[in-house]
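Our collaborator T.R. sent over the components below with a one-line note: 'Predict the complex.' Nothing else. No constraints on interfaces, no templates requested, no preferences about which chain binds where. So this is a plain run: every listed entity goes in together, and whatever single assembly comes back becomes the starting point for the next discussion.
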Amino acid sequence: MIKNIVIAVLAVVVAATGYWGYQQRQAKNSVQIHAENNYQQAFHDLTYQVDLLHDKIGTSLAMNSKKSLSPALADVWRISSQANMDIGHLPLSVLPFNKTEEFLSNVGNFSYKASVRDLEKEPLNGKEYKTLQSLYQQANTIQNELRKVQYQVLKKNLRWIDAEKAMASREEKSDNTIVDGFRAVEEKSVGYSEKSDFDAAYTTMNKKDQNFNHLKGREITKKEAAAIAKKYSGVNKAKSRVTSNKKGSDFEFYSVNLDLPGTKGEVNMDITKKGGYPIWLINTRKIKGSKISLNQAANSAAQFLKSNKFSSLDLYESAQYDNIGIFNFVTNDKGVRIYPDSIRVKVALDNGRIVGFSADDYLQGNKNRKLEKPVVSAQEARKKVNPKLQVMEQRLAYITGNEGSEVLCHEFLGTIGEDTYRIFINAKTGDEEKVEKLQNAEPIYDQMV
Amino acid sequence: MSGIAAIIKKGIIFTIVSFAAVSFTGRAEAFTNQVIQRGASGDDVIELQARLQNIGYYKGKIDGVFGWSTYWALRNFQKSFGLPIDGLAGGSTKNKLVKSSNFNRAFVHEQIRKGNNFTYYGGVPLNQQVKPGGKGKQAARGNGAKKSTTTAVNTPNGFSQNDIQLLANAVYGEARGEPYVGQVAVAAVILNRLESPVFPHSISGVIFEPGAFTAVSDGQIWLTPNQTSKKAVLDAINGWDPTGNALYYFNPETATSRWIWSRPQIKQIGKHIFCK
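Returned assembly:
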């Protein structure tokens, strides 16, 4: 009898201990995940800020006026301090990381002093320009090394907590990539807009709030929406499902889903109720290899737009990603490019058919514009551009300016060294409205590390 | 010693050159028939860059991606040879280029395969233009999955490959069971947050914001993402937003926060409701 009671009590105690242990383990796990997430955030943020830093310094090299250079340098200062803070969050106590921090504070010091100075009275002199250039080079080196570490971290799912333990115990672990990687970053750091700016076709969130109020036409039915989706996707027979938007949307639209017969693919498309305008389309069919050239695909995209009554468009960006080509078109109104009116088309390189397009920005931006006459002539504008820029192309263009409204600009496309820049000079005031450094291809890290 | 080595090296290079000459004389044109335009990548671009470098127009890396520097080099070439300046490598441009430059396919592709840093200027001995790069692991890698020999890739303006990878991790962790469009939508929400003043201003900041995504809180973000989520991320970055500018989404079956129901709902994709 007593024996049984003791057994029962002990069983309860064992179960309770087990449960308590399990709870403790869960709690420890969640604390560890939380700590790991903090480290990961700081690390990925660091690489992002260094990317930005490199970009921003590169852009400021092409600037010419105080009005754009001062804020750009202030940005460089802010980004360098953010990057320095990120390093502070990383468990690098055991690792000497002072050279990289020194580089960042050098960047900070230089950009702070230059940005608060009146650059109109005292512009950057040759020596300072050289300093900026060398900071640009160093930022590039550090960026590359950090990206390599980041590539490894993502590829191998490396955890900072493990690196921290390894560093604390000074044990040589088999895969200590994080520690080794940061040593490499450190070795290479010698001597000394938020979110890298979007391209010219980029429309801000504020602009997006304007929505599709200006579109004309009567309201279409669900049946008509399905027919429109079939027309745009070139699918004749398919089961269609049409749903209406929910109440919280700023505008009324239908979402159409077409099941592609005989495949697992489907077509999804959103269409405005008013007028039946296409907002975006994605076809998820499998793309088998690439048989046609990017150029043929571009022609096919242009043909598609033409046959769907999107007229007078210029192709201004094209890029190949594996088996698809992505093309960015903007309106060309009597030789003036309207960057906010952009349409993106995605073409499958196996047969040249369209597998996606996005007319979101175009529908919001496109309207009958009254083209203004430039007040500042092209020659005058040319003088406002950084004299180091070798101009290759120039034209008139509308872009979304700093205040969020459309502004007429003289656009100059040109090079400084190996980098290509797009510079916009306001055609009314002659101000440097926007300077963009265009992206170069990125090396594949798998082949470098 | 070094004299002998040099002679041997020269001998080898001579053999390679003559081998290349023999094996490619059969072809009238080395390029394929495609018109090569900016943004393209692959073997034709490698040849284009190598030929332009051979006659001094292209000074960048021969990486197989037709970027801006290749574009300007090609236009300068067209300008000085009296061709229409369109930055497209079409029939007549390629013919002119083939006639006026050399291209040693075996040499160039060997350097790329080995991951060497190299140039291909005319009039400079080839062995002086090669610097071993990487750690010599490349030759052993024999990556059968990738046929392409390019050493760089296109990335959308403002995003690196690692940014794309991190986003793909988040999308996979959050929405791997969702239809493709639902995955593009999750990526689009992250990007919309990047633009919004009330969220952090970096990709890492948005993703790791405490409590923002369940996949981050429970560690599912570290599952290895598949190609589908990567493609979805690329679509979102390239301008596809299936959500109608949503900033939030939730699964109505599992959502525990009452607050999320108060957000204005835009639409439902798969299991997720997207809201402002």
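Summary for T.R.: The CA atoms of residues 318 and 327 of chain A lie 5 Å apart.
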